[in-house]
């Protein structure tokens, strides 16, 4: 086995690959599902060494465990995945045993993908990925590769190939990550109940987010919101 193959998590007694992973997601049931899917270490080579459900806890757990790879949700209480990346920048830049990040999110929006990649993540995959493909993506990120779900790679290529980056949208920047996610689904025509199911939140929470979005953007109703989002290519 080559040195490159055994880098990072190294090899176990059976000669297989090993990688230590931290799961960061604010939905406990989703973390449990991922753990069940990929955490059978003897079969997958993945050892889940920690979990976190918000930004502060994520930084604490990542700093304490120093995993090879962090599976990072984009939308988290306390500032989102981008804030985790910002606060963990010294670990990502470490000369020895750098911590690498792979975004794992329900969102397939271009601004979310580009935001975390600019923040330092090595890849971005959506939550409909299979367990086997997720394990493969984790090992590829451990090796320093960039990994994307096929549709999302185009966002990154377009963003970084462009010589004139798009201007900062001050209106959009007023919204939290969760508000942006609700905004996109509402603009796509989802009913409140459908948004709640998609994001694992209550209908009342959806209503609260929509009210906040309308207030911040100075819009009157969901029809104006849809036109606003469409004009910015958010849907």
Automatic annotation (TrEMBL):
Keywords: DNA-binding, Phosphoprotein
Coiled coil: none
Pfam family, one: Response_reg
All residue ranges annotated as the Response regulatory domain in the record: 20-142
GO term, biological process aspect, one: phosphorelay signal transduction system
Domain of life: Bacteria
Modified-residue entries (4-aspartylphosphate), positions: 73
GO MF term set: DNA binding
Keyword Phosphoprotein in annotation: yes
SUPFAM superfamilies hit by this protein: C-terminal effector domain of the bipartite response regulators, CheY-like
All residue ranges annotated as the HTH luxR-type domain in the record: 168-233
Name assigned to this protein: Response regulator transcription factor
Native species: Streptomyces odorifer
Phylogenetic placement of the source organism: Bacteria, Bacillati, Actinomycetota, Actinomycetes, Kitasatosporales
């Amino acid at each position: 086995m080559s040195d490159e193959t055994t880098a990072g998590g190294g090899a176990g007694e059976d000669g297989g690959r090993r990688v230590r992973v931290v799961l960061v997601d604010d939905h406990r049931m989703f973390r449990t599902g991922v753990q069940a899917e990929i955490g059978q270490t003897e079969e997958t080579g993945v050892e889940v060494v920690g979990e976190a459900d918000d930004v502060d806890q994520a930084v604490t757990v990542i700093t304490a465990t120093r995993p090879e790879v962090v599976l990072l949700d984009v939308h988290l209480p306390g500032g989102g995945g981008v804030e985790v990346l910002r606060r963990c920048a010294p670990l990502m830049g470490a000369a020895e045993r750098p911590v690498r990040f792979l975004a794992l999110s329900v969102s397939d929006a271009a601004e979310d993908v580009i935001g975390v990649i600019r923040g330092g993540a090595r890849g971005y995959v959506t939550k409909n990925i299979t367990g086997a493909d997720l394990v493969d993506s984790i090992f590829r990120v451990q090796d320093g590769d960039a990994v994307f779900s096929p549709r999302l790679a185009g966002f990154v290529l377009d963003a970084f190939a462009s010589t004139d980056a798009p201007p900062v949208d001050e209106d959009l920047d007023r919204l939290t990550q969760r508000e942006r996610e609700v905004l996109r689904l509402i603009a796509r025509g989802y009913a409140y109940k459908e948004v709640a199911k998609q994001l694992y939140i209550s209908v009342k929470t959806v209503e609260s987010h929509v009210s906040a979005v309308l207030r911040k953007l100075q819009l009157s109703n969901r029809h104006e919101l849809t036109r606003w989002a469409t004009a910015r290519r958010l849907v």
